[in-house]
Amino acid sequence: MPSPAALTRLALDWPALLAFYDRARRVLPWRAGAGETADPYRVWLSEIMLQQTTVAAVIPYFARFTQRFPTLASLAAAPESEVLRLWAGLGYYARARNLHRAARMIAAAGGFPRTPADLRQLPGIGAYSAAAIAAIAFGVPALAVDGNVARVLARLLAITTPLPQALAEIADAAETLAAAPAFRARPGDATQALFDLGAGICVKAAPRCPECPLRAGCRAERLGIAAQLPRRAAKPPRPERFGAQFWLTDASGAVLLRRRPGRGLLAGMVELPGTAWREGAPWAEAEALAAAPIAAEWRKLGAVRHVFTHFALSLDVYAGSVAAFPAADLGGFARPVAALADEALPSVMRKCVRLAAAARPA
């Protein structure tokens, strides 16, 4: 980690970066234009959606979400089930539940907190999100370090320590760089300028160094190692889990669904009934069918695979039908197959639904 003396010598050409931003800023649905005032609600919503998700993936979700919930008050007043339904497919569903809880807290308080420390008291907001919201929405001179910013700073300063160990070093450097008067004069624009630089020029595989406004001061470019940074520590192999899900329909065209528990992975989301997801070995067919919601003529349709952050999941999908669902409680509820698009099905369940739909008779 740089010494205090070394940190004082760090510099970033903020005027050059801001000039780049003024002429080439990305137009994004949550971003204020030149001379406009940022909407804290849209800034906050976008930052939560963008956690571990790309801009391209977020844009259509942001549009649908803000059409249904155009204001903080409308989001705070909505039931959680509707929030989860509109979030379905975006992944990392704890974000949606935390977003809803935070909306109610902000509404009850009469408005957004403005400092990073106060923003971090809200569910779902960590150090990065708090700094980004404070800088962009409220002009607080806090420099948010996301993946793009970490990459830019690692190259600019030629930090060769592998990630994630280098994050503390990068954070210390960011704090020093953010003390510059040019940053403090326009912290929201300067932060977003770094985002855009990392997204469009200082990209992962092949940085476009000749186009970079910070090229003259970039140590990694001078050393010829820009494309090699930031270095990353080797990741351990991702564990494999296995399970089975059941597509059970009745003569009316309804399918049996159930809601997951309110805590844990995919909490509160809707799914097809199924087995537990376990490590070790796939479920044998007889073993899986013993866990089916009802005795039926089950046939295996195939398997789907889905990768979560900490494990990969393989699910065998079985289909069965009954004339009518029995009166006995099957631990779930029925919905028309045609209405499944309106249910809060996570991405892995939508894969199962697509497999089942493709196998249905025309």
In short:
The chain has 362 residues and is α+β, with helices and mostly antiparallel strands. The protein is built from 16 helices and seven strands. The strands form two sheets. The protein has a four-stranded mixed sheet, covered by helices on one side. It has a three-stranded antiparallel sheet with strand order 3-2-7, with no helix packed on it.
Provide the residue-averaged pLDDT.
92
- How many structural domains in the coordinates? 2
Cα radius of gyration in angstroms:
24 Å
CATH superfamily of the largest domain: Hypothetical protein, domain 2
- How are the strands of the largest sheet arranged? 4-1-6-5
Query: In CATH's first tier, which class of the largest domain applies?
Result: Mainly Alpha
CATH topology of the largest domain: Endonuclease III, domain 1
- Separate helix tally: 16
Amino-to-carboxy terminus distance: 64 Å
Global morphology: elongated
Descriptive overview:
By secondary structure, the chain is an alpha+beta fold. The protein contains 16 helices and seven strands. It folds into two domains: 4-228, Endonuclease III, domain 1 (Orthogonal Bundle), CATH 1.10.340.30; 240-359, Nucleoside Triphosphate Pyrophosphohydrolase. The chain has helices spanning 4-8, 14-24, 40-50, 55-68, 72-77, 80-87, 94-109, 116-119, 127-138, 147-156, 167-177, 181-185, 187-200, 219-223, 285-289, 347-359, and strands at residues 240-249, 254-259, 270-271, 278-279, 299-307, 312-321, 333-336. The protein is elongated. The N and C termini lie far apart (64 Å).
